[in-house]
Design goal:
Pfam families (chain B): Adaptin_N (PF01602), Coatomer_g_Cpla (PF16381), COP-gamma_platf (PF08752)
Order of helices and strands of chain A: EEHEEEHHHEEHH
Number of helices of chain A: 6
Mean pLDDT of chain A: 84
CATH architecture of the domain at 98-248 in chain B: Alpha Horseshoe
Number of strands of chain B: 18
Low-confidence stretches of chain B: 1-14, 591-617
Oligomer: heterodimer
Strand order of the largest sheet of chain A: 2-1-5-4-3
Membrane topology (chain B): Peripheral membrane protein
Shape of chain A: globular
Largest sheet of chain A: 5 strands, antiparallel
Structural class of chain A: alpha+beta
InterPro entries (chain B): ARM-like, ARM-type_fold, Clathrin/coatomer_adapt-like_N, Clathrin_app_Ig-like_sf, Coatomer/calthrin_app_sub_C, Coatomer_g_Cpla, Coatomer_gsu, Coatomer_gsu_app_Ig-like_dom
Strand content of chain B: 5-15%
Subunit structure (chain B): Oligomeric complex that consists of at least the alpha, beta, beta', gamma, delta, epsilon and zeta subunits.
Protein name (chain B): Coatomer subunit gamma
Largest interface: A-B, 60 and 67 residues
Largest sheet of chain B: 6 strands, antiparallel
Radius of gyration of chain B: 36 Å
Strand content of chain A: 15-25%
Number of helices of chain B: 37
Radius of gyration of chain A: 18 Å
Mean pLDDT of chain B: 82
Number of strands of chain A: 7
CATH superfamily of the domain at 98-248 in chain B: Leucine-rich Repeat Variant
Low-confidence stretches of chain A: 152-162
Helix content of chain B: 40-55%
Helix content of chain A: 40-55%
Shape of chain B: globular
CATH topology of the domain at 98-248 in chain B: Leucine-rich Repeat Variant
Chain lengths: 181, 887
């Protein structure tokens, strides 16, 4: 018997229900079309609700789905029928807050779909740091964001200096390139 | 230089803007060539990987070659020292999940990272390597993994532990060796390390009950800090409580204090987990429930929807078994009816319906009426079902509940919703006699304006059964005849049948019904005209004075005694000839389809038998045809029952033999299906020697050996026994397979001339009472039971001794009797302490048998059973009791 709290999938959709990033950890939805059908069901059932201040919850296809909306980003975490709802809620909270922290330090500083797509690498790493094969890895948004930010920088650089150090790095690359020509 | 694909600081605020607009797999795969550049551009490489991951994430798939190419290209990127790029490389490798021979390429790079000074490298390399590795490689890196588990960086330790959880599925024996390190990690100060370590430790020990119990005992004393780990520990604790329930009869429940103390934990998820664990305890008492209910009640008024949902969902479950315990929350519950989240509102409503008392029903119904208009169909169905059970609980309140149902029936709604309402009304009509007349009128009104053909026909059928028995049947005629004018052909046809039922059962209405039926003779649809003609003729319209005879009624409206699927196959197999189709030849056994398919090769006819064409035949009629084609057995009469095949050999032996027991009135025929699994030999003159000394009532009358049994081509041999006519004789038979072995020259496939006689011992075979019972279901058990009458009813009580569960005890009795459970009563709700099960069957001699079983289980798990049998024959009722008494 599986007793360990587990996550069936983590989804990030836009305000029209399109997939920005998604990760499935179980075989309940074996093909891409079944995944898309599930995402559509989840989106249509939740789109009219207000999940901005507090995470909301719904039962969909015998699964517990906990979700939170930030601007035009819709975050979802799905668990089995008997899963502890509050554990799933911590996961979705961790995910949405970590994405919020990461995106607000990016160039435009907006937490929205466009910024998310432009920094999809951060989102994917974020997913990777939250859940590993259905097992919850980390739920503290600051820790999650910290792990990713420290990697996209030269180790140790503070978050606010990111753009400067990035620019420097690019400049260095250009220089070496032109020297080698 | 290549344009970076992420456009920064663009003024274009178009909402649909995406950096991936127009992205194409082929082009991205081309771009991936930059991975091979001698001078790597880390940023550009990261961007390409992001594009590849984007494609995969959107559901795009790579072919085997594409994936291999990408994988090899990505491995080149280990040269770069850029941290961000390395991180993307890890993601990409996990996403491609390379094959075993490819894994070797990256193993050394990953192992280097596993021992790197950078914690991030170590943690991620462990997770990647464990994801893609296989058992052999694992032993090489095991040493590092053990070190990582006790690493002082929690991220590294968690990575190793989580990988351990996954590896337990594939390589449990390796992970089990990490026990010491894992145990150390359980004491870690880092919250998530503790959680992951506890999960691994429990999985390592899960098959050792004592070890799990020790683990729980030591940890519940309080060294667990992480809320997630605490939740896990609560789950393990309730498992231990569940398993130890059998041997602690007296006194306190072990660990209950721990669960109760968790209700005061500061993390809400722990409180919820503990409260839920308490409510799900086996045979929980109301004293134990109280503290859990109290915290859940507090959650009901939380500002967080998730918390309200969790609480109301738990209370809803409790209300099913302990409605009284939840009544304290009713006021909070009522305020949730207006909750923004409709799931919460629906759960609150249905909980209230379960806990409500008779006096509160009316008030509740008013609240629900307002609520129904703004929820989705799926929630409405849940409410309708709750109202149905409420009505059955308080039959006196049927008037307001029936009104409610009829009101919502008039409103808009989809098929499933309407069907749920109709089903509920039908059940109420059947179970509450006072509700019948008003319920039927509601249904009549509904079909006046019903868009669902299926529902219309169902209601018409039901009206035909119930309508004529009411005080004034004539008032329904108008509604029914309207259908003949207004509806499609299917509904018209069933309206005609319903009219005919009224005509047949209510003598005074007969002349008027005939007038209506005659009008239907001019209908545009064949089926409608045919039905009208049939009914007019059989009900005797020419001479309306004639009383409709019982046999006519039986013919027109009696239930078909054979399963429809069997009738269908029999009709398909019927070939037009001088002999007319005989409905009695249709097998009555409810067949199990998967078995028939699985065993299909086993009954392949061999050369010695006249081979009937093997079509999509079912087991039963395939057996029947097979047997009737063998001259020796054709005199046995009609086949009563064929058992499922019973294996007489272990799987994987040289000769595979199973047996099918065919039961006839005065004979029993064993059909041995033999398969030769050795390519090098040919068996000849295969026969089974049966010793029936332990089965006194049987005497062997005939046998039919199998002339030859080549490799992998199954064949049958038969042995027939005579037994007293119609008597359900039982007995035990021992079997010996006897044959001549001939070696086969494999290349040519020719057998040698001379063979050697040999024997092979098979397992014993038993003919049991259940072999004389056919599984035949009835659609409405209550009706069948009433109409059978109490003339030959036999009731007795039995103690079944200590049993694992009610389900186990019940299944044992069902198997013993070999009867068909009816109306879904073979499912025992969890936690229930008593259960009733309805069985039906046909006993040898074509005697219908109905059985009511009532079980009760006590604290010592002793099961008592009351068995009531009704049948058409006194001796059969007694025989059923004998079966149970001796079984």
């Amino acid at each position: 018997m599986e007793l360990c709290p587990s996550v069936k999938n983590v989804l990030l959709l836009d305000s029209e229900g399109n997939r920005i990033a998604a990760k499935y950890y179980c075989d309940d939805w074996p093909t891409n079309s079944t995944k898309e059908a599930f995402e559509k069901a989840v989106f249509t059932k939740t789109q009219k609700t207000n999940a901005r201040t507090e995470a909301e919850i719904a039962m969909i296809e015998n699964n517990v789905v906990v979700y939170k909306f930030v601007q035009n980003l819709h975050f979802f975490v799905t668990g089995g029928e008997d899963e502890n709802e509050l554990i799933l809620a911590t996961v979705v909270q961790g995910f949405s807050d970590a994405v919020g922290i990461l995106l607000s330090t990016c160039s435009r500083g907006q937490v929205d779909k466009r910024e998310a797509l432009e920094n999809l690498d951060l989102i994917l790493m974020c997913l990777d740091e939250i859940v590993d094969g259905g097992i919850i890895l980390e739920t503290d948004p600051n820790v999650i964001a910290g792990k990713i930010a420290s990697q996209s920088l030269d180790a140790g650089g503070p978050l606010s200096e990111q753009t400067i150090s990035q620019a420097l790095a690019t400049a260095r690359e250009h220089l070496t390139r032109s020297l080698l020509k | 230089m290549a344009q970076p694909f992420m456009k920064k600081d663009d003024d274009d605020e178009e909402a649909d803007y995406s950096p991936f607009l127009g992205i194409e797999k082929g082009a991205v795969l081309q771009e991936a060539r930059v991975f091979n550049d001698p001078q790597l551009d880390p940023r550009r490489c990261s961007q390409v990987i992001t594009k590849l991951l984007y494609l995969l994430n959107q559901g795009e798939t790579f072919t085997k070659t594409e994936a291999t190419e990408v994988f090899f290209a990505v491995t080149k990127l280990f040269q770069s020292r850029d941290i961000g790029l390395r991180r993307m490389v890890y993601l990409m490798i996990k996403e491609i999940s390379p094959s075993a021979d490819e894994v070797i390429i990256v193993t050394s790079s990953l192992m280097k990272d596993m021992n790197s000074k950078t914690d991030m490298y170590r943690a991620n390399a462990i997770r990647v390597l464990c994801r893609i590795t296989d058992g052999t490689l694992l032993t090489q890196i095991e040493r590092y993994l053990k070190q990582a588990i006790v690493d002082k960086n929690p991220v590294v330790a968690s990575a190793a532990l989580v990988s351990g959880i996954h590896l337990l599925q594939t390589n449990p024996e390796i992970v089990k060796r990490w026990s010491n390190e894992v145990q150390e990690a359980v004491q870690s100060r880092a919250a998530l390390v503790q959680f992951h370590a506890l999960a691994v430790l429990h999985q390592i020990r899960q098959n050792d009950r004592l070890a799990v119990s020790k683990l729980v005992t030591s940890l519940t004393r309080g060294s667990v800090r992480s809320p997630l780990a605490q939740c896990l520990l609560i789950r393990y604790t309730s498992q231990v409580i569940h398993e130890s329930a059998g041997n602690s009869q007296t006194g306190e429940r072990p660990f209950f204090d721990y669960l109760e103390s968790c209700l005061r934990h500061k993390a809400e998820m722990v409180i919820l987990e503990a409260a839920r664990a308490i409510t799900e305890l086996n045979g929980v008492t109301s004293r134990e429930l109280t503290p859990a209910i109290t915290v859940l009640q507090l959650f009901l008024s939380s500002s967080k929807p998730v918390l309200r949902f969790a609480a109301v969902r738990t209370l809803n479950k409790v209300a099913m078994t302990h409605p009284m315990a939840v009544t304290n929350c009713n006021i909070d519950m009522e305020s949730l009816i207006s909750d923004q989240n409709r799931s919460i509102a629906t759960l609150a409503i249905t909980t209230l319906l379960k806990t409500g008392n008779e006096s509160s029903v009316d008030r509740l119904m008013k609240q629900i009426t307002n609520f129904m208009s703004d929820i989705a169909d799926e929630f409405k169905i849940v409410v309708v079902e709750a109202i149905r059970s409420l009505c059955l609980k308080f039959p006196l309140k049927y008037r307001s509940l029936m009104n409610f149902l009829s009101n919502i029936l008039r409103e808009e709604g989809g098929f499933e919703y309407k069907k749920a309402i109709i089903d509920s009304i039908v059940i109420l009509i059947r179970d509450i006699p006072e509700a019948k007349e008003s319920g039927l009128l509601h249904l009549c009104e509904f079909i006046e304006d019903c868009e669902f053909t299926y529902l219309s026909t169902q209601i018409l059928h039901f009206l035909g059964i119930e309508g004529p028995k009411t005080s004034d049947p004539s008032k329904y005629i108008r509604y029914i005849y309207n259908r003949v004018h207004l509806e499609n052909a299917t509904v018209r046809a069933s309206a005609v049948s319903t009219l005919a039922k009224f005509g047949a059962m209510v003598e005074s209405l007969k002349p008027r019904i005939f007038v209506l039926l005659r009008r239907c003779l001019f209908d545009s649809d064949d089926e409608v005209r045919d039905r009208a003609t049939l009914y007019l003729n059989t009900l005797g319209c020419d001479d309306s004075e004639v009383e409709t005879s019982a046999s006519t009624n039986e013919f027109l409206f009696g239930s078909l005694e054979v399963p429809l699927a069997n009738l269908e196959t029999s009709l398909k197999n019927y070939e037009p000839s001088d002999e007319s189709f005989d409905i009695n030849s249709v097998p009555k056994e409810i067949k199990s389809q998967p078995l028939a398919e699985k065993k299909a090769p086993g009954k392949k006819p061999t050369a010695g038998l006249a081979a009937p064409p093997s079509g999509p035949a079912t087991t039963v009629d395939a057996y029947e045809r097979l047997l009737s084609s063998i001259a020796e057995f054709s005199s046995f009469g009609k086949l009563f029952k064929s058992s499922a095949p019973v294996e007489l050999t272990e799987a994987g032996t040289e000769y595979a033999v199973n047996v099918v027991k065919h039961i006839f009135d005065s004979h029993v025929l064993f059909q041995y299906n033999c398969t030769n699994t050795i390519p090098e030999v040919l068996l000849e003159n295969v026969a089974v020697i049966v010793d029936s000394s332990d089965a006194e009532e049987f005497s062997e009358v005939a046998s039919k050996p199998l002339r030859s049994l080549p490799y992998d081509s199954p064949g049958q041999t038969f042995v027939a026994f005579e037994k007293p006519d119609g008597v359900p004789a039982v007995g035990k038979f021992s079997n010996m397979l006897k044959f001549i072995v001939k070696e086969v020259d494999l290349p040519t496939g020719e057998a040698e001339e001379d063979g050697v006689e040999d024997e092979y011992q098979l397992e014993d075979l038993e003919v049991v009472a259940a072999d004389y019972m056919l599984k035949v279901g009835v659609s409405n058990f209550r009706n069948a039971w009433e109409s059978m009458g109490a003339d030959f009813e036999r009731v007795d009580e039995y103690g079944l001794g200590s049993r694992e569960s009610l389900t186990e005890a019940m299944n044992a009795v069902i198997d013993l009797l070999g009867m068909q459970p009816c109306e879904g009563t073979e499912v025992v709700p969890s936690n229930s302490r008593s259960h009733s099960c309805l069985l039906s069957g046909v006993y040898i001699g074509n005697v219908k048998v109905l059985v009511r079983l009532s079980f009760g289980i006590d604290g010592q798990r002793d099961v008592a059973m009351k068995l009531a049998v009704r049948s058409e024959d006194e001796s059969v009722s007694d025989a059923i009791h004998e079966i149970v008494a001796s079984g």
